[in-house]
Structure formats: structure tokens, C-alpha cells
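User
Here is a favour to ask of a fellow structure person. I am asking you to supply a protein in sequence and C-alpha cell form. Please set it down just below, with no commentary around it:

Assistant
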Amino acid sequence: EVQLVESGGGSVQPGGSLRLSCAASKFTLGYYVIGWFRQAPGKEREGVVCLSSLDGTTYTARSVQGRFTMSKDGAKNTWYLQMNSLKPEDTAVYYCATDPRTVVGDCDGVGMDYWGRGTSVTVSS
């Protein structure tokens, strides 16, 4: 079974940057969608960025457009979320998730098979 482990979270001041990592093991999926999601205290889970391996289609939440970018280490099953110009409202636990689907859709994470345990990001002065 696919296992995902997030890392790279922490505390940062507004305007700062962080890079989150999502390392996958036992990754045997052919085509897949992988995404980053976040959940702030008292709020619903939000899809941040999703990527389809089939055609490279991406979904980026409007709230992070121009600030967050997903990338992959070509040699490893590791995906990154580069977060720049962080704002207090970006404070949340960030999760990566994946499963063998091909359509990014609304990047809402519903029904995705494999989830990491999350890494916490706090943006505060």
C-alpha cells in the first residue's frame, strides 16, 4: 500500500517561504492524481494544488495562485509544495494525498485513497 510522509512544516513570519515535501513509498501507481490539501482549525479541508500525472493538468486554489507551486523530484517519488509570500490565513495542517485517478477535477480530495499524516504550518508575526 502506498505510504505518504509529509515534512517541512514549521513557523514562519508573514511574507516568508516554506517548502513542504511529500515522500511516497511503495508507490506502484501508474497514472495518478496527487495533491496538497490543508485544513485550518475549525475549517473544512481545502484543496491547494493537484496534479494529474496523465497530462500534467494542474488545479491551483485561487487563494494561493501565484504563491504556491507543486513540483516533483524526477529521480524520487517525492513531491514538493513551494509556498512563497505566506500569509496568516495559510496557517493549517497540510496533507498530501494520491490515488489512481487521472482527472484533477475540483481537487477536493474526496475519495482519495492514500493520505499522509500532515505537517503543520503556522504563519504569524
In short: Residues 4 and 24 are 5 Å apart (CA to CA). DSSP finds no helices and eleven strands in the chain. The radius of gyration is 14 Å.
